[in-house]
Amino acid sequence: MKIGVWLVGARGSVATTVVAGAAALRAGLAAPVGCVTAGTDFARAGLPPLDALVFGGHDISSTPLPKRAEELTRAGVIPSPLADLVRHELETADAEIRPGITDAVPREGQTQAALAQALIDDITDFRDRLGLARVVVIHVASTEPPVAPAPAHRNLETLTEALETPGAAVLPPSSLYAYAALSAGCAYIDFTPSTGAWLPALDELANARAVPYAGRDAKTGETLVKTALAPMFAARALAVRSWSGTNLLGGGDGATLADPAAGESKKISKERALPAILGHAVEGQTHIDHVAHLGDWKTAWDHITFEGFLGVRMSMQFTWQGCDSALAAPLVLDLARLIARAHERGRAGAVEELGFFFKDPLATDEHRVQVQYDLLRAWAGNLA
Amino acid sequence: MKIGVWLVGARGSVATTVVAGAAALRAGLAAPVGCVTAGTDFARAGLPPLDALVFGGHDISSTPLPKRAEELTRAGVIPSPLADLVRHELETADAEIRPGITDAVPREGQTQAALAQALIDDITDFRDRLGLARVVVIHVASTEPPVAPAPAHRNLETLTEALETPGAAVLPPSSLYAYAALSAGCAYIDFTPSTGAWLPALDELANARAVPYAGRDAKTGETLVKTALAPMFAARALAVRSWSGTNLLGGGDGATLADPAAGESKKISKERALPAILGHAVEGQTHIDHVAHLGDWKTAWDHITFEGFLGVRMSMQFTWQGCDSALAAPLVLDLARLIARAHERGRAGAVEELGFFFKDPLATDEHRVQVQYDLLRAWAGNLA
Amino acid sequence: MKIGVWLVGARGSVATTVVAGAAALRAGLAAPVGCVTAGTDFARAGLPPLDALVFGGHDISSTPLPKRAEELTRAGVIPSPLADLVRHELETADAEIRPGITDAVPREGQTQAALAQALIDDITDFRDRLGLARVVVIHVASTEPPVAPAPAHRNLETLTEALETPGAAVLPPSSLYAYAALSAGCAYIDFTPSTGAWLPALDELANARAVPYAGRDAKTGETLVKTALAPMFAARALAVRSWSGTNLLGGGDGATLADPAAGESKKISKERALPAILGHAVEGQTHIDHVAHLGDWKTAWDHITFEGFLGVRMSMQFTWQGCDSALAAPLVLDLARLIARAHERGRAGAVEELGFFFKDPLATDEHRVQVQYDLLRAWAGNLA
Amino acid sequence: MKIGVWLVGARGSVATTVVAGAAALRAGLAAPVGCVTAGTDFARAGLPPLDALVFGGHDISSTPLPKRAEELTRAGVIPSPLADLVRHELETADAEIRPGITDAVPREGQTQAALAQALIDDITDFRDRLGLARVVVIHVASTEPPVAPAPAHRNLETLTEALETPGAAVLPPSSLYAYAALSAGCAYIDFTPSTGAWLPALDELANARAVPYAGRDAKTGETLVKTALAPMFAARALAVRSWSGTNLLGGGDGATLADPAAGESKKISKERALPAILGHAVEGQTHIDHVAHLGDWKTAWDHITFEGFLGVRMSMQFTWQGCDSALAAPLVLDLARLIARAHERGRAGAVEELGFFFKDPLATDEHRVQVQYDLLRAWAGNLA
Q1: Mean pLDDT throughout D331-359?
Q2: Contacting C residues, span 105-144, partner chain B, CB-CB under 8 Å
Q3: Per the CB < 8 Å rule, is A369 touching B232?
Q4: Is the pLDDT of residue D233 over 90?
Q5: Which residues contact D241 (CB under 8 A, 6 or more apart)?
């Protein structure tokens, strides 16, 4: 029984690392480091094995996956000579990549419904042609700016109507992909801070189609550490007074986020956890800078001031130096396995138990990483 | 109903901050920052209020507490003019301090049993004279070197016999204090890495006298952060490969720990958490340096290397800059309140639920700070 | 023979620390730590002794210096009980403070020339009344936004004319103060990144009046370190590829610089050194954040990526944690002594040999701190 | 006219990077990043071009250079596919490597003079056979423990005599190599902290043979930064109170230095600069830890506390993350070119003008990196 993993942004760094990495793990060429669901806590959850995963997706780039894998080898993300060893699997996945939408604004006379239908057709063709039990759609494309609330987003009826209006751009691209995925009866994951499925109308759609979805914005670095440290201060009743962060990002992600509009989505997402964990606002800014020389790497520096007993001022700082795609890719595999199983077990709508993976978890205010893990593990136990 | 808090090392920086701080909190001169048990999770646990605490203790120094408080004001630990405002309380506590033992080795002809009896008499006199419902003994004196296992430590009978041997030094000072405390029917806390109650014979004594004890080595800085971060790596299946730490300590604590023998106790205690949390050994050393210019402050730098997906190498580092006495003092108050309540409720022997407070928690291998907190909170719920 | 030091912003944190510190040094209550000119390299330069300095100035605040000194004592900038010991000197200086201009825009019918004349009168009254040999004016007030070039700034003639136009705001406050100082025949120092004397017309005025001036923006932290480290990379032919900086500032300075317009002046000043030293542009941003909880302290984190042999990528980072007023105040004393002596020796116009003290040194492109020091020392030798 | 570069430790990481890098530079495959003498300041010094350098050396390892280069490619030190492109040059150099001495202790009946003669023969054979104008010997082998002073080291006469004593181990290996090099009329460089030429008898030998030598212990990381920062504190009259350092080293160097005896040599060398620059001792320790997971990389963390005006305490810290071989290799090329030219121009004995390159520069107390660079540049000017 095969499971499809349909990646929106299928030729990006994260997706390329996912496909190459899954092949490496299957071939025993690498250990499942960074794969949460490879742990014993998930052994009896009935998750589909990596062998069962088949990859495809949408992308607007036409650079083939083997070439992208070579680039990532030069960048130190994929170890040499892995890209060569899994070349066949990269080619197979590449053959299942279809052109994505470059612009969610329909041409004159066209409707967004028609744009969505083309996406739906790509996904269902993938599922039918390869005889897949089900398909999980995971959005790993570039971050979009935040979207202004619109009446059309409020419920499924108004949305459906609005999508039929020629020339109207009701949904941003990420939400159009989410709409297509849910309409096609696929589970959906928002791996980025883009709007995606995070609209009342799409929640209604997910429930109507009885498919689960989760998100958003995978936590892989600064925020992951934040959600490990902030609960420590809270448990010890130490009064955090400021928390400042500077994120230096290279690569395409850095370039995208250097755009203030897209960066805003990321900042909103990044600033969610602290007040939720500490119970109060904390002064301090979060910067996201593009530093091209860092390549696929990112460096985050966080500086925290806090008060202890009798008001004594203390401070803490940390620097996180990680490889973005290597941190993200195993989580994509984890999420694919988990939500595919949830779908199989009949779960519909937002899956808050997957909050462990996200900066801005849907349908929950729990941000403490250890508590999130305990919730995830308990849920996985129930999937058995 | 009054509760005695008998501090071994009663004129040290921690003890002075405890007495001044408790007075400040009672008088509403400071908020209970850093006091875990001031949180709502402990509101219904029936803990004795701060008002109920009465301080005394042993020390080999004769510098009175008001003078020590002035020194700590100059050092920035106690905010000006607090020491003046709580002078009366400092004097009251100082009047209850008795000379400690400078050397646990009895003079010729003398026995350790006799040394212990003098300590017991001091504590029972304090309890009886002030009409205290019970007394908690907390060891906050200088760290001792590790102690070699000895047959006399194996059970209470052999220990009792050995203590009666003239001239024999069966127990190190911290254990002699623990013996005295438990013998006097008092709950006991090992706040330092010294041996204290951590001997089979003393565990037997605690159970025989139906008193609880807990320890050891309060976690207030580097190890606290370690036990918040290491579980994050574990939950994310990131493979920690090295963890190196350098601790720069000023003040008396730094000078004591610069002695390799005493420093060894601290290092053993500090290196307990990582293998327990990660499930495997990790390369890397832990240094403890004395830097007198830091005064009462300590700085810890930790550097961590880890592998992610496909073996990609990443790293993290943090710097913690804290004031030792200000971090420790509120925990002393927390532990006094919690173990006094446990004693009242009939708990005897090692209290593993207090592991949240310690680097080397007795009777448990759980080091993850969030899990420790959840265990503590649940236990406090049962104390109600 | 007395020398006047007229501080613009005379009741600010820097000025208060200057006055208290000078008094402490004269009374032997503190060692001249941070005072460059106290070193043997300057012993024979004929600089006026600290005893010769008499303080006064302009400010728009009316909080007296003794009260400001108390605030700085609570903040940990001035050690207790120094403020009490030098109370008399603080009062004496406070009595010589005159109201500054809150707004350089003249009221209807009024001219900037008239505003300037009032400032000139204050300074000359100070000089005449106290029989001072000369007066040095040092601008230590809040940073202003950058000023757009204007025809009136081009030469002294057009400026003089423009200043006589009723209602016209030709000069920003800092430049009006500089104009007044130079017109009064006083040496002038731009201690901040504000425009100050940095206009062709004012340079002409300085030369016409035969007075020296220097600036601008004292380097006391991040930039000081930058100008020590960047030459190391250059000398070693290591290719710096990015240099990112985040500055966390508390206090009034932080609040002022959190305003994007004023912050812009500071950023321009901060970003001057790197391209000058390295000989090429370097990617990376400089952030200035206001973190009120830091009080008078500032923390800078800089992250540098560089390439070594065969293109290997390496990185360096540093964190600087300093007290702004304590870093600035001794430099004010140094500059007062040095420029007073230069004035005495007949130096007129921009004094590039003082570049050692500034982020954006006038009339020179030399930013390497060691080279600047060697130039300063050589110049001091010639002042003898 | 060809110049020989004879590397002691010719199959180590540094030497391999030197040979591969020189070939890459000659072929235009890489820019001379990290090569000090490639700068314009050295253009007219008459230095031998890279084309003129021919490599050979001693080593106790038999792993050929092409294989070592592959290992360094996997480690990220030599970029792929450079090792393949310069395979011929690696093989050529490898053919000129002769077995080194594994132990400087002569077998029974043998003398160190005989051991030295074998080394001399290797070097002169290399020079004669390849028709080299001169040979520079550079010691880049593992660090040795410090050597106790001995009467035989005092002058050349006693040394010569002692070397002839059968079975006597008068010199450590590094000094035996230095003795051989100088005896063969070759310039000599101590690139490590080992004793090498740093003995009065060997200085006499260098002068007698009219050859120059320099050392010791190339400064490539922590100490390089120290000697850039410490002068900044000194120039600003800021009082450095403590300087603590932790060095995490992977690779063979880390393993060698983890041995306390060898580590001692490195520490002595590392601790030379601070007191010389600051003019007073500073508290703080320097740790050298082996962290195998770091591979060829090293991380240094330094923490500095200092006092400013009125005794205010401040701090600074930095982290340096470098690739050891990539930092060292270009300096080997620089030193080879510079000392070959000095030899050509008749310079004999210790060359203190090369102090810029070393942690523990011979024959000078100048450690400030900028001043060292200025001295080097001036000297290079005189070589023209």
Answers
A1: 98
A2: none
A3: yes
A4: yes
A5: B293, D282, D283, D305, D306, D307, D313
